[in-house]
Amino acid sequence: EPFVADEYIERLAWRTPGGGSRGGEAFDPKRLLEEFVNHIQELQIMDERIQRKVEKLEQQCQKEAKEFAKKVQELQKSNQVAFQHFQELDEHISYVATKVCHLGDQLEGVNTPRQRAVEAQKLMKYFNEFLDGELKSDVFTNSEKIKEAADIIQKLHLIAQELPFDSLMDFCCYPLSSPGKYHDLECQLIQEFTSAQRRGEISRMREVAAVLLHFKGYSHCVDVYIKQCQEGAFLRNDVFEDAAILCQRVNKQVGEVFSNPETVLAKLIQNIFEVKLQSYVKDQLEEHRKSDAEQYLKNLYDLYTRTTNLSSKLMEFNLGTDKQTFLSKLIKSIFISYLENYIEVEIGYLKSRSAMILQRYYDSKNHQKRSIGTGGIQDLKERIRQRTNLPLGPSIDTHGETFLSQEVVVNLLQETKQAFERCHRLSDPSDLPKNAFRIFSMLVEFLCTEHIDYALETGLAGIPSSDSKNANLYFLDVVHQANTIFHLFDKQFNDHLMPLISSSPKLSECLQKKKDIIEQMEVKLDMGIDTLNCMIGQMKHILAAEQKKTDFKPEDENNVLIQYTNACVKVCGYVRKQVEKIRNSMDGKNVDTVLMELGVRFHRLIYEHLQQYSYSCMGGMLAICDVAEYRKCAKDFKIALVLQLFDTLHALCNLLVVAPDNLKQVCSGEQLANLDKNILHSFVQLRVDYRSARLARHFS
């Protein structure tokens, strides 16, 4: 612990008798001073003793430091001597090594010619045996030494090839013996390799393959290996899975047997593709090529997909430098004859299949498609602009049928989806956008033109005239289904067509074609605005049948028990149904546009209807109640303009009941101040008391 002088003094004083109040003793300063003096002397003696000890240790340390420095110097000198000896030894070793290398070169220079001479002597000996026609050497008679015999035969065969023809004629027996022996030995080696492969002796196979590597029959050895590998490998129905398993097994083995495993494995794969797969593909496709286009396309897509998947698995193996190109060429060699005219088969099948789906649907409805004359888009737009009430053409009774089918649409889209998938897989990358556009054109023709457009034309032709009674407005059902179908069409356009054409010039062409289709359909949907005339006509029939003159001029003013008229109830019920139907049939801005048009016409109808009657005081109150109910109905439109029109109409109806003295005040109110005075006057004239001089005077 650190030394603290104050604490030390305190402890010393506490231990000294009379140094404090301990134990009730009195304080004795002299005794405390004496104790301090004695303690100081003891500390001085202790300090001197410690100082002498420190000096002694310092002297000893200095002495040991000098001895250590001297010892280090001696070690440095010894190290220098050892380093000099090491350098001398290294130089001596280098000198000896140089002498040894030189001697080795000399020995090699003498030994190499000697070995060659010995080998040449052996070859001459074996050559003489061939000349004599009798092979006596153990190397030729012992089957265990077939490797050594093969080496000798190979060397003699090479020598024979280098000799001129005249020299060969001098050794007439050699040409008769050596080539035959070469071939026989080659056959023996191949047979030995075959036997070893059947026994599963990898080491023996590797040994024989190494010997055959220098023979002409090495490629035949590889062929035999490939043939035997495939024995019993294709026993299941799935030739592609069998091929993958076979290549996986051979890949593990081929590196242990051959010195060029990638070449052998590539040759095996080539054999599988050109023999097994090509034969299998031909059997599967030729059976349906001319008789069943649907099955042919399905098989072609399935086989091509499985072949490319097999190729992807084979990419894991070492097949040389450019294995991607190698495998692509193999796939192309199998399918080239089928892919050249693929798109023509696809378009032909899609056309016939789509026509059959549509015809089957119309047959199920007992409907014979008819030709409905239509003008151009500009003519249709002109008719919409003019908003005429001319009939669209000969009226067709559809009996409530929209001639649109979700099932038909799903089938057409499913067929097209599968066509897009096949197109993506089977088309050449350069032809992909063009082929995809042709498939899209088929979809447009049969789905948009032959189905949706025909249904719209039929629906337009079936719209009843505005004066028809109990007319069924099925065109809104057509609009609803057409809208749903087009959303499905647009989804397939984005999900399946766009990825195929997104980076090609065909993109703008497809977008323009889609835009034209949308524009044409929207124009025909706009023509269906004549349906609103039918709705207004239905309302007119309801009002004419249900509204009575006595409703607004009751015989007993004091005995009116209804809140609003029966005509009002039925009209509001009808309008609410039509508003809901419009909302269900359309989406987006089209809903607001149609509802605004219907709301304005609805207001005009009620406005004109109210001006056909005279109103007593109680009748005016009932008219106000009717208009209030119409206004509630108008709120369902959720269109500000329509609600504003009915608010104004409600304010006008107040003129039917207000006291004559308050007419000017009501007319100058916020809602009526901006209206034409003639409109206000026309409503005031509907009052039964209008002829009274007092009322005429107040309003003038």
Automatic annotation (TrEMBL):
InterPro entries: Sec10-like, Sec10_HB, Sec10_N. Residues 148-699 form the Exocyst complex component Sec10-like alpha-helical bundle domain. Belongs to the SEC10 family. The lineage of its organism: Eukaryota, Metazoa, Chordata, Craniata, Vertebrata. PANTHER family: EXOCYST COMPLEX COMPONENT 5, SEC10. One of its GO terms (cellular component) is exocyst. It comes from the Eukaryota. Residues 29-137 form the Exocyst complex component Sec10 N-terminal domain. GO terms for biological process: exocytosis; Golgi to plasma membrane transport. It comes from Bucorvus abyssinicus. This is Exocyst complex component 5. Residues 40-78 form a coiled coil. Keywords: Coiled coil, Exocytosis, Transport.
